[in-house]
Structures are given as C-alpha cells and as structure tokens.
Design goal:
With 472 residues, the protein is α+β, with helices and mostly antiparallel strands. 45% of the residues lie in helices and 12% in strands. Strand 7 and strand 8 (222-227) form a beta hairpin. The radius of gyration is 25 Å and the shape is globular.
C-alpha cells in the first residue's frame, strides 16, 4: 500500500517534470512509496502486451565513463594505486552531482533516491546483535565481504588529491556505493557493454516472473522498457534482479523473498582427493562462490542451490557435484576418465560410476550436516518465528534475517535428504528393482511443483537411472 507523503509526492512531480522536459516518456507509469525507503512503479492505466512503457534518453542516464571523465574520476584513474571498479566511478559521479545540490542536472532524481540504507534494510548497517541472527550463514559472510570491499576501495581512493579536496567521508562513499549497488543496469550501447543508472526505471522492484523487459535502444538513443503481457491498473511494474537467493538479495538489496527456489547454502570441502589420488584437475574446477570473498587456500567453499543441474555463479549445484565426484575418485576411476578425456578440464561433470556417485553424495551429505549443525535454531523454530507477524512484520530486519538463514537451512537439508534417497536407489541392480523400491515410489509421488519433488526427481532422472542402465 502506498504511503501518502506531501514532500515525496512533490519530489515525484518534479522528477516527472524534469524527465519529460528532457525527452523521457512514461504516460502510463507512476512512482509511489510503500515504506520509509521503499519505492515502486505502478500502472496508472491499462497497458497492452508489447507496449513501451518507459523511455529515458541517454542525456538523463549516468554511465561509468562519465565517472572516469569527470575531474575527480580522472584524478583517481591516474593516481589511485591498484584496480578501481566501475561501480566506484559511478559512485564518484553520483557524489559530484550530489554536491552540486539544486544546481545539478540530476537534482530532481536525487531528491527521490533513498537517503538512509539502514532504513532500507541493508544488513551492512545492522548492529552486532542483529547480525548474530545470521551467525554461520553465507548471507553474513557475503554481507561482511561487500562491506569490506567498499571500505577497501575507499581506502584506495581517499588519498587521491582531488578526492581529499571534496571533503567526502567513508559515510558519503558508502551512500553512493550502495545507491549504485542497488540500482544499476547492464546494457549494450553502440555494441559495447555498459553499466548505467537510469532514473525512474531504477525504481522497479524485483519479481522473478516480471512483466517488463528493458534494453538500451541505439536507434532511439535511450533506455526503453516494454511489457510482455497485459497489465491492469494499479499493478506493480516489476523487473528481475536475477536468479538470486535470499543470501544475495539481502546483502545486495536489503530484502528477502518469502519463497525463493534459488536460495543457496555454503558447502565446505577439502582441497585434496579423499582417497589420496593426485587429481590434476581438482582445484582447477570453477565453482560458484561470492566474487567479493577471496579463497583462504585452506578449504574449498562452494555455494549451491537445490538444482544439481544448474551451473553458474548464482546456482552452483552442477559445479558442486563435479568437484565432489573428483574428490571421491579412486585411482582406477581417475586413470579411466583421464584416458577417455585427456584434455577435459571437468571430466567429472558427468557421473563416473554408481560407487563414485555414492561416495560423492556422502561427501556432500557430511558437508551439509556440518553446516546445518552450526546453527542455533532449527527449521521448525524459524518457521514458528515467521508465523508471528507481530514479532517479524513485513520488511523488518528480523524477518529478513530469519528468511535468509531458513533458506540456507532448507537447502542444506535438501542435500542431506537427497543423499540418503539417492544412495539407496543407486544400490539397485536394475531399473526394474529401482522402480519397486519404496524410496522411488515416495519420490515419484512427491509434488513436482514443490522444490523437493521437482529437483530430487530431476536428479534421479538425469543421474541415477542412467547410471543403473549403464551398469557402471
């Protein structure tokens, strides 16, 4: 429900006037506020599928190159020691415009941007007691890593002469960096990749099944947003922030979803094969982990969702099995797959044998059990906490903390259960005996619309049954 605020409403009118004056068009879209630092876009008229709902000309867009070309950015580029991120250059540009106040071309946009990222729910601003609710989560590790990365970048640029003259503080830089972190778009402009900030379009909230699609249109020289289905009056015009779990949404955007099939958990594995085999490709296997967190060289941390076939930085199940099959290789298995795939960097991406798969499942189960045992509350206790909406109201930091850790626990529990079920099935000598197994019947009767039913059966279909058929 939108919050009525005369000052905010006036700022929205000023933003709309500024955008239209400079060539933007959004006749059926309105901006509203649903919380102290929460904004959203809604349809104020019915919208037809394939209709363009927002156009923002390039002159109203902030780009990384602008940050590099401005006076302070240019000095940072020449004087700062070490790599400086594109987000940092955007932050520099944002701070320079903010310092101009009403004289800034972007002033009407700045007036509707969040001023307080603590109020927006970013966990980097939580107290130590609040962060204890995330103890032992990858969510907290990612939160701290993002915070450290921003502070380290500030240390890298703060001694640059032009930066010192601005009088900016770490607090100022953090505001700009979190503004950038929560509202950039990756586009292609004239054939080149670009990271940009787009007024109005940046107010769209997240939804996996979002109705909108966006791009930079070279022919129109601006950022355009279209819808792919009919939209009724008052409907939230959402975007997607990607296939992320709450373990990413909370550190990067300050919110969690009540239901999220992309929740990852962190699994910790050894760096050496468990049978003493010198597996030459083991530590060359690319795995899913937070880009903000450096490896410590002592263990291998892998972040994974419940989808064992999904790969990439935000999924990771496929990479986890690839790594754990390599961990579980016997000498004979290693020599056999190396002979069959002498140049492959990931020969264990496909299942090796039933016995190897069972050993890999045991390694995963043990890692999940260790991680789950660190938590101070159970899944059932967390679910009970969330039922109390007085204690954990919508958008509250406490609800977000419980949702984040619960998502990780459910993912860990999924793999413990999968390992137990799959190990039993992999002991079957034929598909006929597998189909008669009570575990197989239980799996097949599970709801395929449910996360467990869908992904567990997918693993059985893609891995277990082919291994049994191959009699490996």
């Amino acid at each position: 429900m939108a919050i009525k605020d005369d000052e905010f409403d006036q700022n929205v009118k000023n933003l709309s006037k500024w955008l239209r004056k400079n060539g933007a068009a959004f006749p059926k879209v309105e901006l509203s506020r649903y919380a102290e630092e929460g904004r959203d876009l809604r349809a104020k008229e019915c919208i037809k599928a394939n209709e363009e709902i927002i156009y923002v000309p390039r002159k109203c867009i902030i780009e990384v190159q602008q940050g590099k070309d401005c006076k302070v950015g240019h000095a940072v580029k020449n004087e700062a020691k070490g790599w400086v991120s594109g987000h940092t250059y955007l932050a520099i540009r944002m701070l320079m415009e903010r310092d101009l106040g009403a004289k800034s071309f972007f002033y009407p946009w700045f007036k509707v941007l969040p001023k307080d990222y603590k109020a927006q729910g970013m966990p980097q601003y939580w107290t130590d007691d609040q962060k204890k609710e995330l103890k032992h989560t990858k969510t907290l590790a990612k939160t701290n890593a993002v915070k450290s990365a921003i502070e380290e970048m500030w240390e890298r640029i703060r001694t640059v002469s032009a930066v010192k003259k601005t009088g900016w503080t770490l607090k100022d830089f953090c505001w700009a960096r979190y503004t950038v972190l929560t509202r950039t778009f990756g586009v292609e402009i004239n054939g080149k990749d670009a990271t940009v900030m787009v007024p109005l379009a940046d107010m769209a909230n997240h939804e996996f099944e979002r109705p909108s699609r966006w791009k930079y249109d070279d022919s129109k020289k601006g950022f355009v947003v279209k819808v792919v289905r009919d939209i009724e009056v008052g409907i939230n015009l959402t975007d997607t922030y990607g296939s992320k779990g709450n373990d990413s949404f909370l550190p990067f955007y300050g919110f969690c979803l009540e239901k999220n099939e992309f929740n990852q958990a962190r699994f910790t594995f050894p760096l050496k094969n468990s049978n003493g085999v010198n597996v030459d490709f083991l530590n060359k296997i690319a795995v899913s982990r937070c880009a903000y967190e450096p490896e410590d060289g002592k263990v291998k941390n892998i972040d994974a969702t419940t989808d064992t076939e999904a790969s990439g930085s935000k999924r990771g199940g496929k990479e986890m099995f690839t790594y754990c099959r390599a961990l579980a290789l016997s000498q004979d298995e290693y020599e056999r797959i190396r002979k069959a795939n002498p140049s492959s960097k990931r020969p264990t991406e496909k299942p090796v044998s039933r016995s190897n798969e069972k050993r890999a499942l045991k390694i995963i189960k043990n890692a999940a059990t260790r991680a789950l045992g660190l938590f101070g509350s159970t899944i059932e206790e967390d679910e009970a906490i969330l039922m109390d909406t007085v204690k954990t109201p919508q958008y509250s930091w406490y609800r977000n903390a419980v949702l984040a850790r619960l998502g990780e626990k459910r993912t860990l529990t999924h793999y413990i259960r999968l390992a137990e079920f799959a190990t039993s099935l992999l002991s079957c000598s034929s598909v006929k005996k597998l189909e008669q197994h009570k575990v197989f019947s239980e799996l097949r009767s599970a709801d395929r619309k449910d996360e467990w039913g869908y992904y567990a059966n997918k693993y059985v279909d893609k891995v277990v049954i082919p291994l049994i058929k191959a009699k490996k």
